[in-house]
Design goal:
The chain is of the alpha+beta class. The chain has three domains: 16-79, Uridine Diphospho-n-acetylenolpyruvylglucosamine Reductase, domain 2, CATH 3.30.43.10; 84-196, Uridine Diphospho-n-acetylenolpyruvylglucosamine Reductase, domain 3, CATH 3.30.465; 256-359, Alpha-Beta Complex (Uridine Diphospho-n-acetylenolpyruvylglucosamine Reductase, domain 1). It is built from eight helices and 20 strands. It has helices at 44-51, 104-114, 166-169, 206-211, 234-248, 269-278, 296-302, 331-349, and strands at 16-19, 31-38, 57-60, 66-67, 71-79, 84-89, 93-99, 138-139, 142-143, 148-155, 160-164, 186-196, 257-260, 266-267, 284-286, 292-294, 309-310, 313-315, 322-325, 358-359. The strands form six sheets. A five-stranded antiparallel beta sheet has the order 6-7-12-10-11. Strands 1-2-5-3 form a four-stranded mixed beta sheet, covered by helices on one side. A four-stranded antiparallel beta sheet has the order 13-19-18-17, covered by helices on one side. Strand 15 (284-286) and strand 16 form a beta hairpin. It is globular and about 60 Å long. It starts with 15 loop residues before the first strand and ends with a strand. Bound molecules: flavin-adenine dinucleotide and NADP nicotinamide-adenine-dinucleotide phosphate. Flavin-adenine dinucleotide (FAD) binds at residues 25, 59-66, 79, 100, 125-128, 130-132, 134-135, 137-139, 178, 186-188, 249, 252, 257-259, 358. It holds the Pfam family FAD_binding_4. Residues 28-198 form the FAD-binding PCMH-type domain. It catalyses: UDP-N-acetyl-alpha-D-muramate + NADP(+) = UDP-N-acetyl-3-O-(1-carboxyvinyl)-alpha-D-glucosamine + NADPH + H(+). Its main location: cytoplasm. Belongs to the MurB family.
């Protein structure tokens, strides 16, 4: 397990042209005119000097939530600051810090191996630790905000490191302060987690209920564990989430995708009730604030898009929320398909689907 902070590096940042095909999980062919890798916090001032020479800065982690154009003239910085450390073993929580460039799944795996439980529902999400707060990543009933202690970010124009709390980050459903404002304003360099002790399993999602043969999961299990009568451990849940995701979601290494392409719309109860009256199969979930979350994948499926293709872009045949690159798609192909889906869903349900990935405009 690497220590954090990592050994300092003051290696100069020399921008170079870079093929970004391997830096975006949609596998879109994209080139950066000026690309640098940030390996250490010691290089942040130099990065600000460089950023002053460009109109915009694109901060890139694993490119798993991005739609990139064919050419990017802005400065692109890939964040590769690594390291993981236990800050404190408090009676009520493990406090862990990870460098922004760590692989998210690698970090979750380390935590489970060390017995720092609490992130297992977020296993196998692609990308980096630094990007996780940007859209407050979530899956299977846990979101980053539930396990967040704080982060350290560099303000590129003001040239200062800032410690931020959850309140500062303004976390919301797949959203935070980092998704708003000027792109490239902040570079997150480290994230701290508070993993509650004692640990409690989160097993509400239907796929997990089915996997563990619990009461709430109806229907035949798509995949289930070998029977065991004991309560699932964090490692069991980690393995379950990995199994379920591998079965249901396309592996970006095999077929280009950016995960869910649209957010699940949040609507007032009156809107959901009216829709449910017209469409009794509507899939929706009550939210703590009284609103309802509609399953966008269901809306798209009902419009007949599952498994369909438009140009070189397609809709995944097992999960309609995922748009895929059929081989040679461009950002324009992906966005044309997204627009067609948005039109159909709007015409049928009067719901405007909002893209989840960052669409980088050149
Ligand atoms: P990138 O795509 O590189 O960047 C995303 C955004 O974060 C950009 O705005 C970028 O500028 C910004 N950013 C990146 N790094 C930093 C940094 N260090 N400082 C400041 N800004 C930064 N998401 C979920 O929430 N839940 C899921 O279950 C989930 N499953 C997925 C499954 C698949 C197969 C795929 C392809 C994607 C999935 N995603 C999911 C989306 C994606 O994995 C997450 O949003 C992830 O956090 C993106 O990480 P990244 O490093 O690839 O970010
Ligand atoms: P799923 O379990 O088939 O559920 C469909 C949708 O219903 C999900 O989007 C989920 O919302 C919602 N949902 C299901 N059970 C819920 C409950 N008990 N309470 C509240 N909401 C509930 O979804 P899936 O596609 O297989 O994905 C499984 C999990 O991985 C989901 O949490 C999903 O968000 C996450 N995931 C995210 C991405 C991404 O790119 N963002 C990609 C793949 C998977 P939520 O999305 O709000 O959880």
């Amino acid at each position: 397990m690497p220590d954090f902070p990592q050994a300092s590096s003051t290696a100069p940042l020399t921008p170079a042209r870079q093929d970004l095909t391997q830096f975006n999980t949609l596998g879109l062919s994209a080139w950066a005119d000026a690309f640098v890798t940030l390996r250490s916090v010691d290089q942040l001032s130099a990065l600000s000097d460089l950023a002053d020479q460009y109109s915009r800065l694109l901060v890139l982690g694993g490119g798993s939530n991005m739609v990139l154009p064919a050419r990017i003239e802005s400065l692109v910085t890939h964040v590769a600051v690594t390291g993981v450390r236990l800050i404190e073993a408090r009676p009520d929580a493990w406090i862990i810090e990870a460098g922004a460039g760590e692989s998210w799944h690698g970090f979750v795996t380390t935590c489970v191996e060390q017995g720092w439980d609490g992130l297992e529902n977020l296993a196998l999400i692609p990308g980096t630790v630094g990007a996780a707060p940007v859209q407050n990543i979530g899956a299977y009933g846990v979101e980053l905000a539930d396990r967040f202690q704080g982060l350290t970010a560099w303000n590129v124009r003001q040239r200062r490191l800032v410690d931020m709390t959850a309140t500062d980050c303004q976390f919301a459903y797949r959203d935070s302060i980092f998704k708003h404002g000027e792109p490239g304003e902040w570079i997150i360099v480290a994230v701290r987690f508070a993993l509650p002790r004692p640990w409690q399993a989160v097993l509400e999602y239907p796929d997990l209920q089915r996997y563990f043969g619990l009461s709430g999961g109806t229907g035949a299990p798509a995949i289930s564990r070998t029977h065991s009568s004991s309560a699932p451990t964090a490692r069991d849940i980690f393995n379950a989430v990995c199994d379920i995701r591998r079965q249901k979601l396309p592996d970006p290494a095999v077929i280009g995708n950016a995960g869910s392409f649209f957010k699940n719309p949040l609507v007032e109860a009156s809107v959901r009730d009216a829709l449910l009256a017209q469409h009794p199969g509507l899939v929706s979930y009550p939210q703590p604030d009284g609103r309802y979350k509609l399953a966008a994948g269901w809306l798209i499926d009902q419009c007949g898009w599952k498994g369909k293709q438009l140009g070189a872009a397609g809709v995944h045949d097992r999960q309609a929320l995922v748009l895929v690159n059929k081989g040679s798609a461009t950002a324009a192909d992906i966005m044309a398909l997204a627009a067609a889906i948005q039109r159909d869903v709007s015409a049928r349900y009067h719901i405007q689907l909002e893209p989840e990935p960052v669409i980088w405009q050149q």
